[in-house]
């Protein structure tokens, strides 16, 4: 199979009309000026992402550590040893990462989550903070399940689960990026941008600029917990080689560097061979690569998995090799902006 040229392998950006892409009403963000920017740890190279994106965080005034920004999960995960003053009798909790099979056990504690390196819209140091439930982990184990189970070490990670559409038991009340103090009092638009310059908290007229391709999300309805509704996983799909286009759901998961594709009629396990051409659809936006071509958006590997929930593609983090990502939790929009 012909290999795509590296310079062209992953830069195609097409806005069509097939799935009804829409945009927020004019002026949606113009009245919002309050926001924060949190710098990335380690100045990541978006053209060749080899590790997850991290920001410095502390929980309840404890140890400041780099936390992975993970759009594939919801909830803050931290070693219990780094959380001061865990109350006696805190309710037991558990969380399992499906791709690695890592199961974490501990207690849920509602505590301040702080971003000590945040700066405000004027560029002044202004640590941002949200008070949300946190899983303080006391033990972990590898279950042996998942496409990345071979890499499971049983170590307790530092995770900022900031995704949406991850199921009814993970409402937005667990997401610190949507529960900052200013968001709670209504002066900040609930949402974030994952971009080259850092993690932007709050959507404003200054940071929602440029040509965004937006997808209107479907409401998940009234939440089981909290006051804000969630939004369903975006529509999208994929095409392998010259085969048919598989349409379903797409997750841009910043917690992974590889990709997972699932559809009836495809293998339920195994690796997609190097050189295979893939086209990924996120709403009306499309990009292409060949497995192993080294392009900025090419994942480090592509896995088949059982289609337990219909057609699905988890793009992994490297989908952002050419894009910034926006999530508007108030309006229900996912946006991508070519960089």
From TrEMBL:
InterPro entries: Peptidase_aspartic_dom_sf. The keyword Signal applies. It comes from the Bacteria. Keywords: Signal. Residues 1-25 form the signal peptide. This is Lipoprotein. It comes from Mycolicibacterium sphagni. The lineage of its organism: Bacteria, Bacillati, Actinomycetota, Actinomycetes, Mycobacteriales.
């Amino acid at each position: 199979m012909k290999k795509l040229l590296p310079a062209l392998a992953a830069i195609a950006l097409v806005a069509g009309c097939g799935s009804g892409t829409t945009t927020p009403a004019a002026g949606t963000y113009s009245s919002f000026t309050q926001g924060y920017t949190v710098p990335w740890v380690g100045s990541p190279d978006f053209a060749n992402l080899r590790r997850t994106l991290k920001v410095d965080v502390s929980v309840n005034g404890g140890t400041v550590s780099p936390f992975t920004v993970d759009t594939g999960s919801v909830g803050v995960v931290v070693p219990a040893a780094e959380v001061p003053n865990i109350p006696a009798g805190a309710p037991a909790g558990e969380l399992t990462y499906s791709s690695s099979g890592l199961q974490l056990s501990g207690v849920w504690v509602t505590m301040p989550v702080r971003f000590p390196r945040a700066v405000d819209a004027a560029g002044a140091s202004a640590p941002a903070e949200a008070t949300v439930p946190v899983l303080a982990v006391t033990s972990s184990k590898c279950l042996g399940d998942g496409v990345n189970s071979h890499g499971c070490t049983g170590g307790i990670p530092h995770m900022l689960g900031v995704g949406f559409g991850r199921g009814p038991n993970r409402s937005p009340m667990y997401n610190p990026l949507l529960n900052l103090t200013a968001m709670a009092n209504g002066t900040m638009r609930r949402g974030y941008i994952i971009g080259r310059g850092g993690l932007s908290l709050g959507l404003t007229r200054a940071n929602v600029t440029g040509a965004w391709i937006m997808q209107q999300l479907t409401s998940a309805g009234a939440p089981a917990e909290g006051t804000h509704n969630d939004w369903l996983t975006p529509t999208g799909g994929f095409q392998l080689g010259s085969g048919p286009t598989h349409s379903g759901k797409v997750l841009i998961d910043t917690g992974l560097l590889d990709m997972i594709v699932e559809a009836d009629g495809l293998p339920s396990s195994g690796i997609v061979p190097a050189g295979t051409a893939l086209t990924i659809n996120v709403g009306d936006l499309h990009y292409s690569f060949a497995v192993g071509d080294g392009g900025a958006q090419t994942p480090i590997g592509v896995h088949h998995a059982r289609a337990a929930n219909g057609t699905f593609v988890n793009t992994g983090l490297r989908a952002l090799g050419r894009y910034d990502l926006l999530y508007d939790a108030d309006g229900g929009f996912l946006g991508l902006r070519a960089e």
